[in-house]
Amino acid sequence: MSRDPSLLVVDDEAAICQACRRVFSRQGFQVEQCTEASEGLNRAAEGDYAAILLDIKMPEMDGIQFLEELRKKKTDVPVMIMTAYPSIPNAAAAVRLGASDYITKPFTPEQITQSVRRMLAHVPQGEHQSEGPLTIVESWANPQAEFLFLDESWLQGDEDAPACVGGLLKCPQEKQPLAVRLPQVGEALYRGLPLAGVTFADESLVVVPSPISGVVDAVNGLLASQPSAIFTDPCGKGWIACVCTTRFEEEIDHCKPRHLILANTNPSSARKQLGQLTSLGCQIHNVEDCDELVVAIQDASHRVLLIDAASFAALGPELVRRVNVASPSLKVVVIGASSSQWETAYREHKIFYYAVEPFVDNEIVDILNAAFQSPGPSLRQPERPKASFTPISGIGVTYRSGRMVQLLAEPGLLRDGEGLGGQIVQRLTDQAPRVRTNRGDEVVTPTSVLKAASTCDRIIVLLAKDAGRLPGALRQDTTAEYVSATGVSASKVATLVVQPGPNGHGLSELDERTIAFLAEHIAQVMASR
Questions:
Q1: Which terminus of the chain faces fewer neighbouring Cβ atoms within 10 Å, N or C?
Q2: Helical H runs in 208-315?
Q3: What per-residue confidence (pLDDT) applies to 529?
Q4: Edge-to-edge strand order for the sheet containing 353-356?
């Protein structure tokens, strides 16, 4: 028998089967898919599956009939119902026949992952759970795996296994971390939005963004008792969570390794610096003389050069001048000492940073984050003053296929041309020929949702609610009150809930990067079917 647990997906829509295969195969499952109900029933009855994902509405045999036949042979295999038409009779029948849960179409990769993992978490401990991807991780150590970074966040892993994620942070001066706010097991994470937070005695908060989207499989319990590990050993004992990635192919190219050159002619100090840089997730090409450096800078994968000023003495500044000519895009960081006689000479050339003993106080962390920082959001900045921006209550988009989607936002969240509203519009404009905004502050009500649903293919409701999460955290919901209150199909309405800033001012307190990633995810939800 294969060590990997198996899932069976039975749905007459091939696209749903393929989407489930893409999501779960990268999480360590073997995924079988079937578009014919009778064939799926035969497989379900004869095979050994950790769970079955079952469409409730199929032409040959509906999901309730499928369950009735399956329970005659298999009474305990977990079954997840997938439906675009949830109803009380169907739900009651499915529960009576032992369905574990149901999920409404369309669902996101994060939602289906959460549902399946929640379902399997209730399976008694046995062969599937002990051998499969649900094993709880108590420690993480994989020195051979490459660290990939999204700004100060990092991940280790590949598309066929859960990824370990963490952050590379420098502790603020004269501050001691009070606690690390870890994500919950089963929580959905989104690239660029909050992963964890570090709180200090003065109630300040540093948020670590997630480098990739996924669902939390395990968290690092050590950080509860030793929060300082997130600073002192960020790529080792200070890891944050183990994540089942859900958008690996789409997002992994945004995460880059940190390749750098360390130029130091002193073997003793070079070994120490090499060890410290390696512990921070860097891949280092160590060179000991000028000739080796000339060869190393020809490798375009190296983005940063660290040059130890003391070891090169008076030759160092001239060497930097030659590097600037041969490789002008290379960022040069000079590692200097207090009262160095060569500091002025170095600063006469193009250097990224002159650092005085950066390994002593861990300033090197901030230097690396700045040197490898990815380009910021490309929002076109408006020329008019902020006070003149008009609030908007909704954004509508018509895609080239003719599909119409309407975003409805509660008052105070969006403004025309700036902030989150401006960024959403900009992204939609790049995707579709027609984007329109509804000016004004209008409260979202069941009536307004019902009205929008009469003319649009999909409705997205955007809310800001305090759920005790980190500022900017996003939650997606397809079963919110607007569905039950309006009678609109759950497949047509989705609610996006954002955690507001700490002072109750909606989303205006969120930093520009968080706003940019929120806009990206909202635009993705609007474009998805």
A1: N
A2: 222-225, 229-232, 248-251, 267-279, 290-296, 309-312
A3: 76
A4: 282-287, 258-263, 304-308, 331-336, 353-356
CATH of the domain at 97: 3.40.50.2300
- pTM of the predicted model as reported, rounded to 2 decimal places: 0.88
In whole angstroms, give the CA distance from residue 465 to residue 456. Answer: 26
Closest CA to 498 of 418, 407, 437: 407
Scan for tokens 């040059």, then name that residue. Answer: 307
Listed in order, strand segments (DSSP E) in 211-352 are 214-219, 241-245, 258-263, 282-287, 304-308, 331-336
| DSSP-derived 3-state class of residue 312 | helix
* The dihedral sign for the CA sequence 300, 302, 303, 305: negative
SS3 148: strand
Q: Residues of 454-478 as b/e, b for ≥16 C-beta within 10 angstroms?
A: eebebbbbbbbeeeebbbbbbbbbb
Q: What angle do CA 58, 64, 68 make, to 5 degrees?
A: 125
Collect all residues with Cβ–Cβ distance below 8 Å to 203 and sequence separation of at least 6.
Answer: none
User: What residue spans of 261-315 are helical by DSSP H?
Assistant: 267-279, 290-296, 309-312
Residue 140 lies in a domain: no
Residue 104, domain extent: 6-131
136 within a domain of the structure (yes/no): no
CB atoms within 10 A of CB 339: 7
CATH number at residue 438: 3.40.630
Residues 330 and 418 in one domain: no
For the record, the structure tokens of 7 come out as: 């899932």
Using only C-alpha atoms, what is the Rg of the chain? Answer: 26
**Residue 377 scores a pLDDT above 80:** no
Number of separate domains in the chain: 4
Q: How far apart are CA 215 and CA 112, in angstroms?
A: 10
pLDDT in tens, 219-263: 999 999 999 999 999 999 999 999 999 999 899 999 999 999 999
CA 331 to chain centre: 28
**pLDDT for 132:** 39
Tell me, yes or no, whether 380 lies in a domain: no
